[in-house]
Amino acid sequence: MIDTTLYEAKTLYPFQEKTVESILKELKENDSNFNLLYQLPTGGGKTVIFSEVAKNYIQQWGKKVLILTHRVELSVQTSKQLSAINVDNKIINSEVKKLPDADQYQCFIAMVETLNNRLQDDNNFVKDVGLVIVDEAHYNSFRKIFHYFKNSNILGVTATPLSSNKALPLKDHYNKLMVGECISSLIKNGYLSNAETFTYDVNLHGLKIGSNGDFTISSSEQVYGNYFMQEKLLFAYEEIAIGDKTLIFNAGIETSISVEQTFKKRGYKIKHLDSTFSDKDRRDVVEWFKNTKGAVLTSVGILTTGFDEPTVETIILNRATRSLTLYHQMIGRGSRKLPDKDKFRLIDLGNNVRRFGYWQDFINWHDAFRFPDRFLESKLSEADDIEFEVEFEFNRYIHEKINIDILNNFEMKEVYYSCLDKNEKGKIAVDLSLQNHFEAIIDSATDYFDALETLSNLQDHIEYRLKQYVKCIAKSTPNYFKFLLDTYNRQLKHLLRTNLDDE
Question: Is residue 96 within 8 Å of 125, Cβ to Cβ?
Fold first, then answer.
């Protein structure tokens, strides 16, 4: 049994009460194999909501509820909340081989891998289950359990209704998505702290995209483990967050250990934590962090779920990610509200805000659920994503041939948004870019044929510029880009011919 002597039941907020009513209404209006997915931002109280749903379902349907999690911490957290609202429950962990006392419990909480092993040995390991609740439903590991509960309702809950494997979309397993309160609404109504965002431009050249669609750990270690990035991190912390209770998220263990060493040399209170730590060591580090004023905790992939520490004042993303889910999970660790905390700081050292937008921005989750490929493609464009992030490197010929400062003084993204700010068409940015290339070429060209040779050697840079433009306007079909590139070169050649022939 879980010790709940020091655990008080969390009272539902008005929007949470309405959510519970809406979920139960959906289940009543549909048949027994109806699957519902519910979205609510991190910090909105998903555990409180689905625990209340479980209690009401047991009372109204007279059937048992099974709750699936993927972390021990989440299982314990859920069990405590259920016990506090008087729902008899049992955690099915690795030590539970049989359930001779099953009739004593109305609700079971299980780690997905453990339960899968038990069900493979006995299909009826858990009986009379009317509702299966899936916490962090975006993870694909839960799918292996679903076929055992074909005649049960499934309620998935997640902050980001996007599958962790884009080849296995959530819409294939859930009949409907119910979207909860958005982040900005939760902030406005006092349920979440607001994020004050600070971004630092980072050269991500060298990052590689792995088979899972995110940047690889090995390439991230190379980029973030070097001296210059460590110095940039330290500078950002000292400029924005010095003295704050701070969480630093890294992609790799070696980077996190280096962060710990760098901060210790400056005398800061810091500890490193990763998944290789024993349960006891993990608890000790987390307890130290909770109880130490101004503590800094640098970690790798272990505190994104199942970690709830409202006193966190600053989140530092010392990594780049292409996962919108991970982006929201990391930032959400700082959003917990306290009476004297209505905001927290976010420091982005991975160009993540540029990639996904601000954490508070509205997201059309219905679109993400129905058309996940289209939704993700609007955020990311595979190989172009990295190319968009890094500064262009000119070849040696161009350095020797023209004054590249002329080209470096032009930033397509800045010019594009400047045009919009002036209520001008964004397409003017392409015209200004063309003029900039013209000025750089003609500045050193001896004749038209010399200019054409330089133009030929600038093709990679021209493509780089135009790719930035199409990314700004979110119109990047191959045909449109080819049309834009051909038109650009044709007009540039005409401009060079006209001016050089006059000479």
Answer: no
At residue 4, the pLDDT reads 45
Residue with tokens 């503590």: 295
Tell me what pLDDT residue 474 has: 65
- CA distances to 193, 206, 215, 223, 255 from 219, rounded to whole Å, are 33, 6, 7, 6, 11
The confidence score (pLDDT) of residue 347 equals 96
Q: What is the pLDDT of residue 29?
A: 93
Which superfamily does 190-377 belong to? P-loop containing nucleotide triphosphate hydrolases (3.40.50.300)
Where would I find the H helices in 380-458? 383-389, 396-401, 404-408, 412-421, 428-442, 448-457
Q: Say what the pTM is.
A: 0.73
As averages over each run of 10 residues, the pLDDT of the chain (503 residues) reads: 57 93 95 91 91 95 92 85 92 85 89 87 87 88 85 92 82 93 94 93 81 86 90 94 96 95 96 90 92 95 71 96 91 91 95 90 91 76 51 73 91 89 90 95 91 90 87 71 91 92 60
Specify which residues 299 forms β-bridges with.
Answer: 249, 273
Whose structure tokens read 């001896």? Answer: 446
User: What tens digit of pLDDT does each residue of 277-289 get?
Assistant: 888 998 899 999 9
Q: Which residues lie closer than 8 Å to 302 by C-beta, 6 or more apart?
A: 273, 274, 275, 277, 282
For tokens 């390991």, the residue is 125
In the structure encoding, which two tokens stand for residue 36, read together? 């519902």
C-alpha distance across the termini of the chain, in Å: 91
Task: Using alpha carbons, list the distances in angstroms from residue 361 to 333, 366, 388.
Answer: 17, 15, 21
- Tell the residue number behind the tokens 């001296």, with chain if given: 227
Q: How far is CA 261 from CA 71, 72, 281, in A?
A: 29, 29, 19
The count of other CB atoms within 10 Å of the CB of residue 113 is 12
Please compute, for residue 296, the number of CA atoms within 13 A of its CA located in the half-sphere on the CB side.
25
**Neighbouring-strand partners of residue 66:** 108, 132
Provide the pLDDT for residue 8. Answer: 72
Nearest to 85 by CA among 126, 57, 127: 57
- Pull the structure tokens for residue 297: 């905790």
Q: For the chain, where do the domains classified as CATH 3.40.50.300 start and end? A: 14-181, 190-377
What's the Cα-to-Cα distance from 299 to each of 107, 219, 255, 394, rounded to whole Å?
A: 33, 18, 9, 37
CATH number of 14-181: 3.40.50.300
Burial class, 371, CB count within 10 angstroms (exposed 0-12 / middle 13-18 / buried 19+):
middle
